[in-house]
Amino acid sequence: MGLLPLITSTLLFSWTTLNAAVKITKVDLSIEPSADVERNTDVALRCKAEVLTSGTEALNRVYTVYKGDSVIYNKTTSSSEDLLYRLPQARVSNNGKYKCAITIMGKAKTSEAATLTVTGMSTPVLRINKANITEGESVTATCLAQGETGSLLFSFHDNSKEVENGVWVTSSRLTFVPKGVGNHNIHCSYLVLNMPYPSKSQQSNTVTLTVEELSIEPVLKISPQDNVYEGDTLNITCSVSNSTKGYQAGELFLSQDTELLKSGETSIHVNWTAHARTPVLTIRCQLDLGDVEKVVSKTVSVRELFSVPTLRVSAVEVFQEDEISLTCRSEKLSYGRLEGESLIYSLEPFDYQMVRKGNGVFVGKAKTIDFNYTCTAAAKGIKKKSNVLTIHPKVPVSTPKIWVSGSAILGKRVEIFCLSDTGTPPITYTLWKASKQNQIAVVHEFNKAANFTVVINETGRLNHYLCTASNGDRTPELSDKLQTAVIEPMTIASLMVVPDVGDISEGHSVILICSFLGTPPVTVKWFRDSDDLNPLDTTTTNSNNTNYEFVANKEHTDSYYCRAENRANSVKSNKINVVVGMAMWKKLLIPGTIILVVFSLVMVGFILFTRSRRDAASFYDDKEGRVTNGTRGSVASLPADISNRSSYSIPATV
User: Fold this and answer.
1) d(C-alpha 461, C-alpha 407), whole Å
2) Residue range(s) defining the domain that contains residue 153
3) Structure pTM?
4) pLDDT tens digits, residue range 33-90?
5) How many Å apart are CA 493 and CA 574, to the nearest integer?
6) Residue 282 is part of a domain; what is its CATH number?
7) Last residue within a domain, chosen from 212, 235, 252
């Protein structure tokens, strides 16, 4: 084929491929012959894809096989045949979840996971390099897992115990030193590491290993071993029974409990002073030869020369600055072994406040703060220290104060308080009334007062009450007497008026007098019935009466009362009805005015009457002059000067 046709066909193939439409509809992964198989079965994973394409040319397919999340196989092919991934002679290490993915022209699809389970593991075989060893020697064991693949871990057992403290090792070979002499049954097993769980094999064959004891032993000698008292010297020797020919030199350790006395190679000797911190001493002689330890031990009973001393204080309760005595004593003594030697007691710390008053007796003053003491007893080079004695000096109570809460009202309950400003609790407070014990209260907190509730049944003052405070075996502190006055409630209020209600007129001074019974100071308020919210006046007095004065007018007509109040209660008086009468001058003015009016009316009537009479007389005189011969209106009878007039007038008479 020429170059031009080749290029043309290549370009045509590429154009066809690029313009082909592809859809992967399904990808399946199956396990053949089965998902559950026995060991050594040939297994195949079949990956089958269903693909839709618009072209006629074969497209490249990229297959990927996964085990878990790890890629285990890749293949690119243009064939549409199923992909087969083979697992010949399957092992437990092949167990897991598999998936298949296919990619065509950038489009990918993955199958569902399929799980392969292979059962059956080879039985491990154990071999050791020696069947007989001497204690301290090592042995090498090999665990064979024939035909197994994958990641393996091994475990070796010596009798019923795991070697290497139960740690699984990656190597199938292990070198170790067996512990103890005699026969050791060795076996092994292995793990195949799979996800999510490893698979464990059966137990291997058992191989017997014989460990012979070394013909060498430590030897321990103690003298004396009986009738030992503390302070006695013990001669102790730790040595080896036989020479260590053929072995590396060992090391000896001599110890008492956890205290190492001495170490060496072939023999150790010490002169050790016995003590009695415990009744029985355990002495150990240990020989170390490599990994071999041989121990021999002996016990020695040790008696005390004297017991651990006890430090005591003379008083049950100690107060600041009190004189105290401290005594240090050992209760048990072995006089025969002391051989007349006395115990010497000392106090720690020994300060200037404490003075020695004999062997084991110390006196002085207590401090003002908590303090600790110990004492030491010594004889024949032995010293024993007592336990720590802690002394908590108490603060004595101060003189208590006594007071009441609120007001002491006759017939009511009242709380009486008693408090010492200083003093270590608990403090016992006692209330006394007229030298008789009334109540007791115990207070367990700092600066907290005791309170007593009593009922006030007597007038006057409460000076028959007092209290005491005590916080130990000493004379109680006494308070002053209670200086609180008893308040008598208001029992009655009475109102009177001066002058008498019938004699009150406008312009007169009116005095309202309010009298009452009750403990002063008393606050008095005056009210009128028409306005009982706003008092006319308010005053405070220490007497049993007070007054309110005003000048009366008609507006003061009303009912009046007073209210008296002290710290206990308040009472209301009787009401007085005040009617303000008319002033005297007004009373006198009325009849005078009436008389004046009557007189004026009489005078006016008289004047009018007199005028009417005078007018009437003039009228008849005129009438008689005009009448002649019984004829009315005759002009002939009139005077000449009048009769000639056309008109006339009658002068008025006043």
Assistant:
1) 12
2) 124-212
3) 0.48
4) 999 999 999 999 999 999 888 776 778 899 999 999 999 999 999 888 899 999 999 9
5) 8
6) 2.60.40.10
7) 212
